[in-house]
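hey so i finally got around to running the thing on that chain from the lab meeting. sorry it took forever, my laptop kept dying and i had to restart like 3 times. anyway pasting the input first so we r on the same page abt which one it is
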Amino acid sequence: MTRRRRAKPAKPISGVKPRSARPVNKPDDTRQAILRAALDCFSNAGFEATSIADVARAANVGHPLVHYYFGSKERLWHDAVESSFGDLLRTYDAINFAINDLSPIDALRVMLRAFAKFCAENPHHVNLLLTESKNDSPRLSLLLSNYLSPLHKRADELVLKAIAAKQIRALDPVHLTNMMIGSIMQFSAANVLIKSLYQVDSSSPVIVSRHADVVMDVILNGIAIRP
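ok and heres what got predicted. didnt touch it at all, straight out
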């Protein structure tokens, strides 16, 4: 009985390397990578200064692929914002549930701490709001009405309730609410500056929690009505 000889593997053609198996990205993975890159570009450079080519380079995909998924820069901006700021809306829901049975001033404390944590974990959101706030555009209107206004409205309500309950002094929410929320947003957005000046990472959970404590101590305790 003759044995068959096992065929030897073919020698590679000179100058041609064998192709390695590469994982093929799923369409949803590619789309999400483009959205993340778009949020990064738009929050750092702004809408006008960002091109589709910039986003494609940041996402490491071909320029036509961005057009395939989103069609235009306007659509890409809207989808990136809707995709990422959904976390902020979920944070609002969680905050409102958590503070439902608390006194107004304690509810404000919980809200500020949760918002500080969110800003530290999502610096792109803060940068995008600050970048767009420099221009009076339809994009700013969308950000305000869908995302920032609910936070300010809830904080204003709690400030007025705390005043009515004689827990804090009667101060206009236009000043008090913006002082509280603005100080938290600025601290998160100025991470590079704070690192340079103080060698402190303002995105660190420990530092964020400490900053929230300082905001509450200086502002809320400073305006509290003592029995």
